[in-house]
User: Fold these one by one.
Assistant:
Number 1:
Amino acid sequence: MISTKNKIFYPFSEVLSIKHLATGELLTTVSTSKDGVTTKMVFRSRAVVVSNGGKPSIPREIFNSVPKDKLMTADYFLRREGFDSFINTLNKNTEKRKIVIVGGSHSGFSAAWLLINGPA
């Protein structure tokens, strides 16, 4: 686990499921491995950014219960229109905001960087 203030990064993780709760939150179950030990974690969030490559696909078996307004691919999120849309949706709820980024490598890093630092 790598942590910077309230930002947490779990490398070598795999999303097992994402469920939409009656509260409007998303419950993301993740498996992570380190030194041969596998740990299962569960995150609650208001949104999920899918960052699984330059031409992302959304596997229906994982995301089938997630409403489309709670899910955004990185290729859209990383454009100004997508980022502004995401922030507008996020600002509709004034409670603590939690976001899960699904993916890794460049698109996952770019999505996390943009959320932390904002657009250039």
Note: The first strand starts at residue 2 and ends at 4.
Number 2:
Amino acid sequence: MDASQPDDFFAIVPRRTRWYHKDAQGAVRNAGVLDSSYKVPGGGWLSSADDMARFAAAILADSLVKRSTRDLMWTPEKTASGELEEYAMGWGIVKKYGTTLIGHTGGQQGTSTAITLAPDRRAAVIVLANMDGVDPYALADQVLRIALGLPESLPPSRDNSSAVSDLANIRADFVRYLKSKQLEPILQLYADDAVFLRPDGLRFAGMPAIRAHFTDTFAALDGDLTLTSLNTEFSGHLAYDSGEWSEILTTRATGAQGHFHGDYLMVLRREASGSWHILEHVWTMAAPPPPRE
């Protein structure tokens, strides 16, 4: 893996690509300057598609780590109540197309990346894009499905018992993606015309605005969110899920922590494919108690 190394913005690196960004009008521009050394080794690396393909092949062949180590790394974690999550040690785990997919996404100014592996089929797809704001996860998923001839997932059943499970999965996915700062997967939970209303009243309407909100939030804060659903109702192709939330937020720049809680409301729409997407996402915050006299 001769092309893989920690990124040094100021160094001359042969064959390093330029980084791009689309502005609000859709014009392609140079991406902003970023010294990504602050997040090494968890990020901030340069690599090539060939190198990442070698990395994936080595993992699948058990030549990089032992099979027992790989299995441990890919074992989903459990919640405090014993429920199995779709996240392991730095890897997302999802049952799809009749097999198990392992993967992760990444992104920063001028960069969007994804790696998706199908261990049972000894296959992997690497997508590296020198532009931010694109969806490498969806492309990797599509390429893998086509290359392996995997069947498309069947639409979920339209009875409410199945839909309740679907909404529970969306809640769990939202918490997991938020905690692990997976931008593209969390955005895929929302409809293109979704609206996100923050506890402070700020409103983000449409996918570009919601993307900007999560991008800024992931850069500034580390969060540990808990959602407790209290009520779920359905009416035709619409549903809502409401409940309580609590979160410990850490400001990355200072290390300061705060514990916040309140109520949430998710309004969801079932698409023609049978999948649910968040249409309205509303958060309120409980006021602090009055001072004692």
Note: The chain has two domains: 5-148, 160-285.
